[in-house]
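1st attempt posting a full record on here, be nice pls
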Amino acid sequence: MPTLTPYLLTFPGGLHLGAQGINLEEAAAHIPSDTLFAALVDAWRRAGGDVDALTAPFVGDRADPPFLLTSAFPFCGEVRFYPMPVDLMRLVSAQTVRKRGKEIKGVRYLSEGLLRRALEGESLDAHLFPGAGDAEAGAGLCLQGGALWLSAEEAPLLAAGFRRAEGRRHALRSLPVWASERTPRVTVDRVSASSTIYHAGRVRFAEGCGLWFGVAWRRPDDLLTSGGPTFRVACARALRVLQEDGLGGERSAGYGAFTWREGATATLPDPLPDQPAWLLSRYHPRADELPEALAGEGAAYALTMIGGWVHSPDGGDQRRRRLLLVGEGSLIRATSAPAGDVVDVRPRYRHAAGDLPHPVYRYGLALAIQSPAARSGKEGARV
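the predicted structure (as tokens):
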């Protein structure tokens, strides 16, 4: 069973992660696993570490990674949230999907308590939160306007500002765990000294809230190099560099800096043989895993195209090659463990003089858990 060591990040100055390419006004409210891995590798480089030694176990046909990463998802107080499965029939009945499908499709994350109930085979119909015009339906709760779904038993574990509204279910629904803002900024032309205003997006989290990601350690005490640090020590050192330098964009404006702490470990069931696996990370299938991983019985997935820029100490900023990844919450039919690979996306040019002298890795290894069985009824109630 994968045992996750949670790392909980709080962002006093907010966070900017681009959600729409080069549009600075948009900001995402979670950190994908490929972004996390790239940030840890870069922080290890800036800490003076050996990047090749850190990344070598993750790449190649015989990759044997010492740890696997989830993406970073919201938390509120002591309640951690996980990505909703793409196939809603894994959680609720077909009748509930027909009646409340629009609201359920608006849920982006469900709590660990509800996740464990679903994994034990329990239908979550009875734990639905009240609808906009129905104060009595279901015993569950929601936050962030219905984006976060949790059980009533977890309400006392929420951050203090949310516990005050515990008995008022509709009031709790309206409380934001995070809020997106547009901050005005000014750029000044170096030649004419003329100014131009623009806006940058920022996500701010409520007190006691933030993002968490899990590390499934496989060989934490392996040494990177002879006489060097272990992988666990290297990751902690990289996190300490990151907490000062920040994650995401607009770091010169104070965005992205964080404090972090380890949470209580969570042990979740491994995927069952011949059953779909529930992704807690992004995933890039290897050639030998296709088409079975995405076309097998019960598979249900969402794809996301990633691009962006490479900031390298060995050359100017360049656009990295685009990559298509399977998103968190997807249900895949993995035939190996760990599934997926780590891809070098450095730009390629017709002339070798423009090539970067080092790889640019995007993490696509799957961290997946057991998926609940599909409910009876017509299959395919997917987001």
